[in-house]
Amino acid sequence: MSHVKAGGTAKNIHDSPGQRLGVKRFGGQVVRTGEVLVRQVGQTKTAGPGTFMSNNFTIHAARDGVVGFKKVKVTRFTGKTANRTQVMVLDADA
Predict the structure, then answer these.
(1) Contact, 60 vs 34, CB < 8 A?
(2) Do residues 26 and 66 lie in contact, with contact meaning Cβ atoms separated by under 8 Å?
(3) Whole-angstrom Cα distance, residue 36 to residue 24?
(4) In the chain, how many domains are there?
(5) Alpha carbon of residue 42 to chain centroid
(6) pLDDT 10s digits, 16-66
(7) Are residues 91 and 67 in contact, defined by beta-carbon separation less than 8 angstroms?
(8) What residues form DSSP beta bridges with 14?
(9) Residue 79 maps to a domain
(10) What pLDDT does residue 7 have?
(11) Does residue 1 lie in a domain region?
């Protein structure tokens, strides 16, 4: 027989840091080329004019300007439409 009592299991020991997701530059803010505008998991927001999306769905500014947001409808593969927020960078003087 064992001389040590059962230790049980630890269930709440795994902890990971937050991913710091979300909108980094808001509407009306002036941005420069390459700045991160939105960090996201999946395509919850789409890249509009003046922006591009990297392979991890991060939206960056493709040119200098002012950030703007707009609601759009996106057609999915099945033909169903879904509401998305489009992120765009407009000219600073406009």
Answers:
(1) yes
(2) no
(3) 7
(4) 1
(5) 7
(6) 899 999 999 999 999 999 999 999 999 999 999 999 999 999 999 999 999
(7) no
(8) none
(9) yes
(10) 74
(11) no
Within a domain: 2: no
pLDDT confidence bin for 89, thresholds 50/70/90? very high
Q: Would residue 11 be called left, alpha or beta, if left means φ above 0 and alpha means ψ between -120 and 50 degrees? A: alpha
Between CA 49 and CA 2 the distance in angstroms is 69
Residue range(s) defining the domain that contains residue 57: 22-90
Report the CATH number at residue 66. 2.40.50.100
C-beta neighbour count of 66 within 10 angstroms: 19
- Position 76 in a domain: yes
Instruction: State both tokens at 16.
Output: 């990971």
What's the pLDDT score for residue 41? Answer: 95
In sequence order, what are the beta bridge partners of 66? 30, 90
Burial per residue of 73-85, b for 16 or more beta-carbon CB atoms within 10 angstroms, e otherwise: eeeeeeeeeeeee
Residue-level pLDDT at 5: 75
Distance in angstroms (rounded) separating the CA atoms of residues 88 and 60: 10
